[in-house]
Amino acid sequence: MFSLYTETPSFFNDICEEIRLFLPEEKHILKLDGKNQMNAGTVLRHFFWRDETGWRNRAEYYDAGKKIAVLEERPEFADDKKEPVDITAGTLLAKKLKKHTVKQLIYRIMRDVHQKEMPWGSLTGIRPTKLFRELSNRRGKGEAHKIFVDHYRVSEAKTQLAETICRVQEPFLKDVGGEDIDIYIGIPFCISRCKYCSFISRDLTFNETIKDQYLPRLFYELDALKEVMDQYRIRALYIGGGTPTALEPHDLEQVLKKAGGLFSQHMEFTVEAGRPDTVTEEKLHILKEYGVERISINAQTTNDSTLKLIGRRHTASEFERAFALAKKVGFQSINTDIILGLPREDVGDVEKTLKDIMVFSPGNVTVHTLAIKQSSAFAEERQNDLPGAETVSEMVEFAQEFLSQKGYLPYYLYRQKYMSGNLENVGFALPGQECIYNIDIMEETVSNLAFGAGAISKRLFTEKNLIERAPNVKDLKNYIDRTEEMADRKKKLF
Predict the structure, then answer these.
(1) 73-100 pLDDT, tens per residue?
(2) Residue 383 has pLDDT above 70, yes or no
C-alpha cells in the first residue's frame, strides 16, 4: 500500500496522478493525516510553505520507515510575461501555477526513485495536444516545444507527435466560432460485453424491454432541445454507443429518421458500426439512405485466438466480410480500431493485424493502447498474460511508423488512466479522411450537445477560457425516469 501525506490536501488527487504514472497498480492511495504520517510501507510526504525567504516545496520518499529520497526547491511564480504572480490571491492562474509546481516536484522525486522517465513526462491530463495548442497560441510553437521537453519532461518523440497533430488539425479549427456545435446521440446497447469494456452498454440479448423504453425517452430529449439546436451551426453529428448497429433494422431506422428530421443543414454524419457481427447489408443500406457518411467497423485484432480471449464474439473473417460489404454498399470513409497490449500478443501480432486491415485501405485507423478500467472484466480477472510496458511501447512505435509509411497522418490523440506504458490513443487518417467530430471532441474547441444515458454536454465560453458541463445520468433506468430533468439541464446550459 502506498501512503501519502500532503500539506496541500486540495491537490491530493493531482499528486496521486503523478504517483500512478510510475505505479499504475496503486488504484487506491492511503491518505495520511498530520498525526499519522508513517507506516511500514511506502510513504510520500509533501510540504508546501512560505518562510522569510519565500516559498518552499519539499517531498520526502520513505520505504519501510527509511527515508530514501528528498527533493526541495524554492519556486518562483510568474505569468507568460515573466511578471510575478501572488499565488495567495486565489485566482485561477494562481491555483494553476501552484498545482503545476507541486506536480513537477512529485514527478521528479518519483522519477529519481524509480530511475525512469515517462513518455509523456509529468502530463496526466487526457488532452496533451490541447495544451500544446494553447502554449503555441500564447508563446509560439518553438517555445511550446521547449516547454513540453524541458518543463513537462515529455519525450522528444511524443512532443513531435503532439506538434504534428496540431499542425494537421489547423485547417479544421481555423473558422470555428461560437455559433458552431456538435451533436452526440448515445445508443447504450451491444450484443455482448468485451472484457476490456467499461462503458455502460447493456447486452440487447437480455434488455429488449429496457431498449423499448429507452428509445422513446431519447427521442423526447432530442425534441426538447430542437429550438436550441436550431440556433447553432452544426458541424458534426455522431451516433455512438455501445453499438448503434446492434439495434434491429426497424429501431436503427427510427433513430436515424429522428436524427435526420431534426437537422436540415448538411453536416458530417458518423455512426459507429463497431462490432462486425452487427453489420448486415440491410442495415448498411439504411445508414446510406439517411445520409450517414462515415462508419466504424472495428477489428481490434485479426488474431482469432486473441478475439476469443477478449470476449469478442466474431472472427477476423467476419471483420473482413463486414468491411467488404460496407465498401460494396458504397461507404467511402470507414474507420477501424485496433488495440495494442492485448493478452498474449507481441509486435508480430500487431504487424499481422495492420497488414490484414490494409487490404481494405480504411480511411481512418485508430490505434488504441489497452487501458484496464476498474469496471471492466479484465480488472476483475487481474490479467497476468498482458505484454509488459516495454513491449507495448514497441507495439505503439511500430504501428505509428507502419501507418506513416502507408500515407496516414496522426490527427487526434487522447490518453486514459491505467493505460499500458503510460502511452496514448491516436487516430490516423489518409489526407482528406479526417473526422471533424473526433477533432472537436478531443480538443474541446466546439460546444457539444449530447443525448442519451451517460452523455455529457459541454458549452464552450471562449472569451472566459471556460467549459461548463451538463452530464446525463449513466444508469438506463434513471435516465428513463429522469429524461425531463436531463433535457432541462441542457436548456439551462445553452
Answers:
(1) 999 999 888 899 999 988 888 999 999 9
(2) no
Q: Which residues partner with 31 through β-bridges?
A: 4
pLDDT in tens, 4-54: 999 889 999 999 999 999 998 888 899 998 666 666 689 999 999 999 999
Tens-place pLDDT, residues 395-434? 999 999 999 999 999 999 999 877 888 899 999 999 999 9
Q: Check if the beta carbon of residue 129 is closer than 8 Å to that of residue 381.
A: no
What separation in angstroms does the CA of 450 have from each of 184, 185, 216, 456?
4, 6, 16, 6
Laid out side by side, the sheet with 456-461 consists of: 409-414, 425-429, 364-369, 333-340, 294-296, 268-272, 233-241, 180-187, 447-451, 456-461, 466-471
Contact 300, 322 (CB under 8 A): no
182-196, 313-327, 419-433: the lowest-pLDDT one:
182-196
Distance of alpha carbon 213 from alpha carbon 477, whole angstroms = 9
**Count of CB atoms within 10 A of residue 432's CB?**
7
Residue 239 belongs to what H/E stretch?
Answer: strand 233-241
Least confident of 41-50, 187-196, 208-217, 265-274: 187-196
Cα separation of 311 and 196, whole Å?
Answer: 9
In angstroms, how far is CA 56 from the centroid of its own chain? 35
Q: Which residues contact 89 (CB under 8 A, 6 or more apart)?
A: none
Nearest to 156 by CA among 164, 9, 77: 164
With DSSP H G I counted as helix, E B as strand and the rest as coil, what are the percentages for the chain, rounded to 5?
45, 20, 35
Residue 375 pLDDT > 70: no
Instruction: Identify the bridge partners of residue 268 per DSSP, sorted by sequence position.
Output: 236
Please give the mean pLDDT across all residues of the chain.
Answer: 92
Least confident of 231-240, 354-363, 378-387: 378-387
Give residue for cell 439546436: 229
Q: How distant is the alpha carbon of residue 191 from its chain centre?
A: 23
CA distance 480 to 473: 10
Report strand pairing: 202-203 vs 409-414. unpaired
Please give the Cα distance from 261 to 222 (Å, whole number): 10
Pull the grid cell for residue 235. Answer: 458541424
User: Which of these, 355, 350, 291, lies nearest to 320 by C-alpha position?
Assistant: 355
| Cis ω before 291 (30° cut-off from 0) | no
CA torsion through residues 395, 398, 402, 405, sign = positive
H runs (alpha helix) in 147-273: 156-173, 208-224, 226-229, 249-262
